[in-house]
Amino acid sequence: MNEVTDPTHPVAGWRGVVADAHLALAFLTRLPLPDTGAYVPGALARSMRLFPLAGAVIGLIGGAVFVVGHTLLPPLLAALLALLATLMVTGALHEDGLADTADGLGARGGREKRLEVMRDSRSGAYGVAALVFSVALRATALAAAPTALAGLGAMIAAAALSRATVPAIMQILPPARADGLGAGAGLPHAGIAATALVLGSIIAAIATGLGAAPAIVAALVGAGLIAWLARRCFGGFTGDILGAAQQLAEIAIFIALAGYWS
């Protein structure tokens, strides 16, 4: 397909950047954004280059709650409230994917059975356990922040860098279903995936300084683990698996930063 007419190809100039940023925020959050008109199939894949920027906005909101809470409350309670704020902003989009993926991995049977279980909106024991550990691990690690500003930086870095892994996974894995996220959103090309990873790394470096190095490694390891499991157990990615990858990458980032702070 010609790059000029390909909706997944980034549009040059500030107009394209603003359009992609708007779509990334509209998809990843429940912020009250103005409607810009009809959705163009494939445009979501193009906007994934700015998923880290949308993540930084999410992290900034949660980080602001952590800063305020840190001055008034015990660190762990401040961390839990900060994570609650991000859940409200995103509508628990990624947490839902984590729960469904955990249930699918825990299901008995082959690939089709696992995918069928993932379509069930009800969360099973594996899904509930995954959510509990996700919140517990992130909150405990965030509570280890030596200062409120360090926690703010960690929230921004974790939210941005974890979402930077999403288009990379869509590059290395095929869609698990013909009617899945890839069919409707389009598949980001290598340039979009690379741009997202670079942007996420830059944001992490600004937010956490030298702590960005272990955070980046941790994000790649966490997302890579989900990618390996997805190929082995599902034959590719789904929207739920991408949400699980974001969650595992974010958990790994927080743990890496907690180790860096210690």
Automatic annotation (TrEMBL):
InterPro entries: CobS. It is found in: Cell inner membrane; Cell membrane. The gene is cobS. This is Adenosylcobinamide-GDP ribazoletransferase. Its cofactor is Mg(2+). GO terms for biological process: cobalamin biosynthetic process. Keywords: Cell inner membrane, Cell membrane, Cobalamin biosynthesis, Magnesium, Membrane, Transferase, Transmembrane, Transmembrane helix. It catalyses: alpha-ribazole 5'-phosphate + adenosylcob(III)inamide-GDP = adenosylcob(III)alamin 5'-phosphate + GMP + H(+); alpha-ribazole + adenosylcob(III)inamide-GDP = adenosylcob(III)alamin + GMP + H(+). It is a multi-pass membrane protein. NCBIfam families: cobS (TIGR00317). PANTHER family: ADENOSYLCOBINAMIDE-GDP RIBAZOLETRANSFERASE. Belongs to the CobS family. GO terms for cellular component: plasma membrane. Pathway: Cofactor biosynthesis; adenosylcobalamin biosynthesis; adenosylcobalamin from cob(II)yrinate a,c-diamide: step 7/7. Joins adenosylcobinamide-GDP and alpha-ribazole to generate adenosylcobalamin (Ado-cobalamin). Also synthesizes adenosylcobalamin 5'-phosphate from adenosylcobinamide-GDP and alpha-ribazole 5'-phosphate.
